[in-house]
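Example record for the data management plan.
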Amino acid sequence: MYFNEICRVLVLTIGWIIFLSSYIPVHFLLKGHDKLRKKVEVSIIYLLKFLLFLRVIYMYIREQNCENLVFLYFNVLKSPEVVLANCAQCIPYFLIYSQRCLVELICMFFVASWTGVVKYHGPRPSIRPKQVFVSNHTSMIDFIILEQMTAFAVIMQKHPGWVGLLQSTILESVGCIWFNRAEAKDREIVAKKLRDHVQEADNNPLLIFPEGTCVNNHYTVMFKKGAFELDSTVCPIAIKYNKIFVDAFWNSRKQSFTKHLLQLMTSWAVVCDVWYLEPQNLRPGETPIEFAERVRDIISVRAGLKKVPWDGYLKYSRPSPKHRERKQQSFAESVLRCLEEK
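Corresponding structural encoding:
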């Protein structure tokens, strides 16, 4: 048993070493270091020019073609601005693509550290404008399981500690959007960010958990309508965990995310199914609330979850002492009446 746990820790450690050794240079070049990036670009240009020069010499020796030699020299080797402009456009895209791949890679190592057995059904999500992915929510590992296949940009509550550090550094690079439930003004800011994000074709696909909280994977609670007001195609994702080895539900009121991860790493395996379902659009005359309920029906049926008319935020609210006393008094009176009747 201890051998298995040590192996999982080693897998995750190796994953972090590989990830950070590649990610830090890429992130460093992309974020606010234009002079250094420019030097890298110029170095690549001179390398290309040198290779082209060797190509010219090779052509001249092989074919003795002076016309080609003159053309290449004056149109390629003597115009570095053109090559530099082309490479300057390509290098940032290459770095962004590298970030996406590296985030997917570290998520794969996380899943491997739990001995994750994940079966994906349906076509893999593609990057297109004006589409948003929505999923039922059991734990923060939902994001990791989905992220290892596609570099989603997720909307998530801002967390403290090491999770918050990852949010502000690594996950920030894939376009994730953060909010704070305590700040009412955050809703308008986040809504604008969501609308702007789905309009850009080059952005990572947007992933939203419309329940707004973790649910125990037996039920689906009411979906918030924000994801369904973006005038975009909604792509449902259903996640169902098998509790044969471990319960993947994260109760954030009783357990920190660190302890939750340790529980998963010390279990035999995390087993789950993920279904990428048919994209849905708002029907004529349909309200966003009705649209949200229709998508919730689709996810609930596919994952075998029971729909309940509850607001997921109820677990964050506490009843006032007066309300609690009234309920206790009412219950006590009903018990007394039953005893008197007997």
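Summary line stored alongside the record: The mean pLDDT is 77.
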